[in-house]
Amino acid sequence: MTATTTAGAWLRRFHPAEDAPVRLVCLPHAGGSASYYFPVSRALSPQADVVAVQYPGRQDRRHEPCLDDVRELADRVVAQLLPWCDRPVALFGHSLGATLGFEVALRLEEAGHGPVALFASGRRAPSRHRENERIHLAPDERLLATIKAMSGTDPAVLADDELLRAVLPAIRGDYKAAETYRYRPGPVLECPVVVLNGDADPEVTALEAEGWTDHTRGPVSFHWFTGGHFYLNEHAAEVIGLVRRRLAGS
């Protein structure tokens, strides 16, 4: 299998690892793209076959309407992933991607392809929402300021105001998906959940992170790093090392 002929519009395989014992599916943050996980793919190959999800509305899919509902996005992602469940699958999601990862994991378990682990990064538990989040309704200037403050966007994009404004619809759609998501009580996961956060992240408190224990029957582990919402940019080697070790033990 090759990335160009089998992954399609939704999935990217930057370093195909045909003989890897596990496949790691990476889900981007709000405003993010599959390319964010290129370094992860490079570092984990050939121990893991890394597949990164490309949401519509960005990069080579910029002319497609974005999806602003987590559950609809999860349905679409799972439909694309099922043919790739020929080996154990793990999920890694950051921010919006962590919430999406939870919904994807539920659907994969229902389909009989439950993940061996869910890595939930930079996001509070699905049942812990904040009523005052309305960034997706904010004027462009405030949305732009929020994006720049988070420091998760490619510096080249941040430096190009015209390009940044061109991707605003997708970013706004992602924020809407994250901020309007509401957990619906139902089945819990069976897989382990690995929770990763920055200790200075204003988006996640320790109590909100601990809520992940309510969403799985499997073990939950917590890992805190110095830094804010995009702590993983500064601690990439540590995070990738943690993922590698967990996958090796799955």
Question: What report would you give on this structure?
Answer:
The chain has 250 residues and is an alpha/beta fold. It has helices at residues 3-6, 38-44, 70-81, 96-110, 140-150, 155-159, 161-166, 168-180, 206-210, 231-234, 236-248, and strands at 11-12, 22-27, 48-53, 89-94, 117-121, 193-198, 220-225. The protein is globular and about 45 Å long.
Question: How do the helices and strands line up, and which of them pair or pack?
Answer:
Layout (H helix, E strand, L loop, with lengths): L2 H4 L4 E2 L9 E6 L10 H7 L3 E6 L16 H12 L7 E6 L1 H15 L6 E5 L18 H11 L4 H5 L1 H6 L1 H13 L12 E6 L7 H5 L9 E6 L5 H4 L1 H13 L2
Summed up:
The protein is an alpha/beta fold.
Classify the helix fraction into a percent range.
Answer: 25-40%
Radius of gyration: 17 Å
Number of strands: 7
Uncertain segments are: 1-6
Residue fraction in strands = 5-15%
Task: Write the H/E string, N to C.
Answer: HEEHEHEHEHHHHEHEHH
Q: How confident is the prediction overall: mean pLDDT?
A: 90
Task: Name the features.
about 40% helix, seven-stranded mixed β-sheet, single chain, about 250 residues, alpha/beta, 11 helices
